[in-house]
Amino acid sequence: MTLQSDVRDLWHRYQNGLSAEDTTEDDYAVLGEFLDALEAGEVRAAEKSGGEWTANDWVKEGILLNFGLRDIAAHEYGDVTYHDVLPLRRTDDLPGRGTRNTPDGTVVRRGAYVGSDAIMMSPSFVNIGAHVGDGTLVDSCDTVGSCAQIGENVKLGANTLVGGVLEPVEDAPVVVEDGVSLGAGCRVTSGFVVGEDSVVGENTLLTPRIPVYDLVEEEIVYGHLPPERRAFIRYVESSVGDHELFEGGAYKPAVVATHVEEDTLEATQREEALRE
Asked: Domains of the chain (ranges plus CATH)?
């Protein structure tokens, strides 16, 4: 049987009442092999096919099984004892691939993938099922949520939150494609896709509920930022502004997307040089 079929079989049994008390050593061996495959980048929670990102629901089921079929236990991290169903991911394989993480408080949870030549600054957190590509910077106070897919040569500015989407299993998670630069304080949530080589201004909120005014194609889109855009937050008039509770009008957030300007690219490249 393949790993996928083993996970599917275990998921079916779990849906029919399998509990941690009934789980066998062979079952835990499947769960461990699955986590190893995630950490090696051999399986991913979502993949791009035909230009669209789709969830690998069996992978997300495997992640949920690792929560549902394990009991809370004490684990050690340095001098700290914490209690969780999973230990943190070992990081002694990172130096051999040119990837570095700084002390103290750089946390990679079991089942997360971190590519080669990547940098993780502390404090930062990468959750189970997340995929962080080669050459990517995860800056201080950043969170990469469960199943989030971060491409290669991405810059996540300080205090950036990249949400994940673990449930429902059929929904694709947040995706930040190759070459993207997210400014400090950005928030990307609810399965939003940031197109490759885009530059997003600081404190921008990207979520499917907020419209993206794409001035390049002169259209309004939801749920994704097209590739090669410079995006920033703006506030537009809201229909609630006619309400008597709001004197002087009310406004709602929107994202404006334009061409990536040459000086923006040059500034991004200069910042890249600091990481060498």
From this structure: 3-73 (1.10.166.10), 74-273 (2.160.10.10)
